[in-house]
């Protein structure tokens, strides 16, 4: 019998394992079988690997193959799959909606309350083959590098953060956190017409260099100094119109309000392990707003795919490492110690 390798979360404890597992069963009704060509390693995967608090809900799904940022080719289709076709390159929306809750029944699947994430609660893309609902496939132009197509999921998070901040022509935008999400935020803020985009990191040399290669020369590292000190040259022109946070570090929230203009908007899209402390009197007097931003609506996906296809040579810079599945654990180590930008696993390599 054919056996494949898969990178799995096996126990509710730190660690991941590359294991030999049976391939998925033939696709059932409404499902398709994907030959996975490229799967990105994301901060969420690293948290699941390290077993940081907040993922206990995964335990009943284990052992489960991780990987929620992926692209591949449809190699088999079940019945009732609609418009999707065998042979097409697709990227996968990882959030599988239930179809039964009041929101789903009303046709508003963006508001589904019973989601099961591919690569979290059901098998994902760190394997050569995976079965997914046909409705979660988003078409990608033929010939686009699958590793670039695999950037779609994190880039939709970036696009949603920029939309939430209502970045418009001429805005001066500060991005906190130079990882993939922050890189995407910088790109979409620029596309939205920002006149200046400054990106701040913390002991983030390689990721800030990636931003420089993406065309953003205004980068600062706050290591050993305060945010306001690091940004001093930029603050001479005034405080920022929009600040978008993608660090997940609660301690950055108050300092970021201090570099935000009156009536400015702070968007939070990092996942924070602890509550943040905010000077609300100052927030009130400055008429500032704090807005949360998370998963993008379905409509954002095709817009992001089009952006990636149009800027393929530029966004290729976001991918710092490509590793075969057999070296996925080494890839996780690169992602964990911040020496990489995006590490992409190639399950067919
Ligand atoms: Zn992710
Ligand atoms: Zn639902």
UniProtKB/TrEMBL annotation:
<keyword id="KW-0560">Oxidoreductase</keyword>
<comment type="similarity">
    <text>Belongs to the zinc-containing alcohol dehydrogenase family.</text>
</comment>
<dbReference type="InterPro" id="IPR013154">
    <property type="entry name" value="ADH-like_N"/>
</dbReference>
<dbReference type="InterPro" id="IPR050129">
    <property type="entry name" value="Zn_alcohol_dh"/>
</dbReference>
<dbReference type="Pfam" id="PF00107">
    <property type="entry name" value="ADH_zinc_N"/>
</dbReference>
<feature type="domain" description="Enoyl reductase (ER)">
    <location>
        <begin position="5"/>
        <end position="345"/>
    </location>
</feature>
<dbReference type="InterPro" id="IPR002328">
    <property type="entry name" value="ADH_Zn_CS"/>
</dbReference>
<keyword id="KW-0862">Zinc</keyword>
<protein>
    <submittedName>
        <fullName>Alcohol dehydrogenase</fullName>
    </submittedName>
</protein>
<dbReference type="InterPro" id="IPR011032">
    <property type="entry name" value="GroES-like_sf"/>
</dbReference>
<dbReference type="InterPro" id="IPR013149">
    <property type="entry name" value="ADH-like_C"/>
</dbReference>
<dbReference type="InterPro" id="IPR036291">
    <property type="entry name" value="NAD(P)-bd_dom_sf"/>
</dbReference>
<dbReference type="GO" id="GO:0016616">
    <property type="term" value="F:oxidoreductase activity, acting on the CH-OH group of donors, NAD or NADP as acceptor"/>
</dbReference>
<dbReference type="InterPro" id="IPR020843">
    <property type="entry name" value="ER"/>
</dbReference>
<dbReference type="GO" id="GO:0008270">
    <property type="term" value="F:zinc ion binding"/>
</dbReference>
<dbReference type="Pfam" id="PF08240">
    <property type="entry name" value="ADH_N"/>
</dbReference>
<keyword id="KW-0479">Metal-binding</keyword>
């Amino acid at each position: 019998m054919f056996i494949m390798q898969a990178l799995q979360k096996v126990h509710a404890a730190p660690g991941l394992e590359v294991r030999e597992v049976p391939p998925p069963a033939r696709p059932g009704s409404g499902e398709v079988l994907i030959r996975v060509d490229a799967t990105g390693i994301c901060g969420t995967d690293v948290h699941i690997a390290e077993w940081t608090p907040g993922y206990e809900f995964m335990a009943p799904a284990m052992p489960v193959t991780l990987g929620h940022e992926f692209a591949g080719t449809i190699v088999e289709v079940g019945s009732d799959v609609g418009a999707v076709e065998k042979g097409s390159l697709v990227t996968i929306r990882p959030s599988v909606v239930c179809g039964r809750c009041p929101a789903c029944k009303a046709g508003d699947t963006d508001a589904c309350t019973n989601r099961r994430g591919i690569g979290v609660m059901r098998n994902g893309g760190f394997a050569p083959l995976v079965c997914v609902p046909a409705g979660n496939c988003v078409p990608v132009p033929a010939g686009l590098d699958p590793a670039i197509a695999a950037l779609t999921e994190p880039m939709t998070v970036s696009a949603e953060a920029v939309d939430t901040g209502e970045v418009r022509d001429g805005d001066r935008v500060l991005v906190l956190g130079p990882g993939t999400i922050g890189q995407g935020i910088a790109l979409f803020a620029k596309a939205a017409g920002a006149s200046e985009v400054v990106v701040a990191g913390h002991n983030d040399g390689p990721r800030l260099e990636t931003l420089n290669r993406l065309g953003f020369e205004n980068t600062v590292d706050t290591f050993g100094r305060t945010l306001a000190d690091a940004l001093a040259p930029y603050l001479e022109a005034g405080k920022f119109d929009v600040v978008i946070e993608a660090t997940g570090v609660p301690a950055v929230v108050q300092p970021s309000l201090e570099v935000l203009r009156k009536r400015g908007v702070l968007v939070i899209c990092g996942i924070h392990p602890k509550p943040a402390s905010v000077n609300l009197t100052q927030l009130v007097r400055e008429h500032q707003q704090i807005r949360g931003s998370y998963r993008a609506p379905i409509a954002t996906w095709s817009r992001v795919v089009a952006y990636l296809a149009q800027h393929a040579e530029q966004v290729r810079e976001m991918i710092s490492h490509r590793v075969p599945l057999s070296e996925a654990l080494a890839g996780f180590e690169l992602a964990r110690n911040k020496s990489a930008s995006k590490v992409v696993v190639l399950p067919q390599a």
